[in-house]
Amino acid sequence: MIKYLGSKRRLVPVLTRLCEAADARTALDLFTGTTRVAQAFKATGARVTAVDSARYSEVFAQTYVATDARDVDLAELSAVIDDLNARPGAPGYFTETFCEQSRFFQPANGARVDAIRDAIEREHAGTPYHAILLTSLIEAADRVDSTTGVQMAYVKEWAPRSFLPLTLRVPELLAGTGRAVRGDALDVVSRLSECDLAYLDPPYNQHRYFTNYHVWETLVAWDAPEHYGVACKRVDARDDTTKSVFNQRRLMPDALRRVIESVCARVVVVSYNDESWVSADELRDMCSVHGDVEVLSFDSRRYVGAQIGIHNPRGERVGTVSHVRNREFVVVAGARAEVRRLVDATQEVAVGA
Ligand SMILES: C[S@@+](CC[C@H](N)C(=O)[O-])C[C@H]1O[C@@H](n2cnc3c(N)ncnc32)[C@H](O)[C@@H]1O
């Protein structure tokens, strides 16, 4: 899975336990990102709907949530991936933009991304392999990037991993079916049917996913957009249509309230942390429309960029880190007896540091 700001890797055991204890046959992951939580829900046997506004996230959800591993010929898929891995590099837009005008990847890897991405479009568009191969390519590129985990900047000296050759792997597909939906959570939520458990993990602050992961947006769109700035961001990053209300301080609390109110589920679970624009009490109040509310709290390490320090777009250190740990909260709402039972069920679950 890719490096991702706000990824809930450490909370997956707790969220999985909640899903199992709720005996959820249907689950919703409304801001699915990497889909790691949706995958964990799917692995419990639930039929999952994964929603996100990002193009790459939809591709991940098509691969890991919507695709049923039992329908895929793994030997054939593996042969297709071997064939893509064998393609010689052919420098194009990706190499010029992300390896020469900026330095997110080594040019030799960029040229292979160009060749492989073109081949995926030419040879696999419209087939069930399309999303799976794009996922494999994004994950391969992520393993050899030269960033601290976001694409607003690249590091000053090439990261050691960037010298490794780009290598696609067969994604670990899961048995079962689900749905991938790309859209604004606020629009999508009212169109979804009721589910047993809904998980909401919205952005907490001003950090926009569209710009933080603009290279993945472009790799999926494959539209060679005009770009600007040292990080070569897509010009449409300036459009209001690519801006999320959840990244706007003034609008976020009301948007969060509306999305929580609109979600139709027996149990509603919301993640947030102490860097969020809403307080624990406000969130508790928002969730109370679904019944009783309990808040689980976990100490956590901040994202890697915060660990390493604050850098300008040239990768130079320009500030100091105020703190390296924060608190993650998981709010559970629903009928009183069920919420109590679910919270009790998480007591023995270990959460990573
Ligand atoms: C905190 S991250 C979710 C991380 C995810 N739980 C994981 O573990 O990978 C928030 C996600 O919300 C998505 N997002 C931002 N605004 C959105 C909106 N208005 N509607 C739907 N998704 C949105 C972002 O693309 C991002 O993937």
Top keywords for this entry?
353 residues, 7-stranded mixed sheet, two-stranded antiparallel sheet, 38% helix, globular, binds S-adenosylmethionine
Descriptive report:
- This protein is α/β, with parallel strands linked by helices and 353 residues long.
- It has helices at residues 12-21, 36-43, 55-66, 74-85, 93-101, 107-124, 129-143, 185-188, 209-212, 214-221, 252-262, 280-287, 304-308, 336-345; strands at residues 26-29, 47-52, 178-182, 195-200, 227-228, 233-234, 265-273, 292-301, 310-311, 317-319, 325-334.
- A seven-stranded mixed beta sheet has the order 3-2-1-4-7-11-8, sandwiched between helices. A two-stranded antiparallel ribbon has the order 5-6.
- Strand 9 and strand 10 form a beta hairpin.
- Helix 3 (55-66) packs across helix 7 (129-143).
- The chain is globular.
- It starts with 11 loop residues before the first helix and ends in an 8-residue tail after the last helix.
- Mean pLDDT is 92; it is low at 302-313.
- S-adenosylmethionine (SAM) binds at residues 4, 6-8, 31-34, 36-37, 52-54, 57, 184-185, 201-203, 209, 244, 246.
- S-adenosylmethionine (SAM) binds next to helix 2.
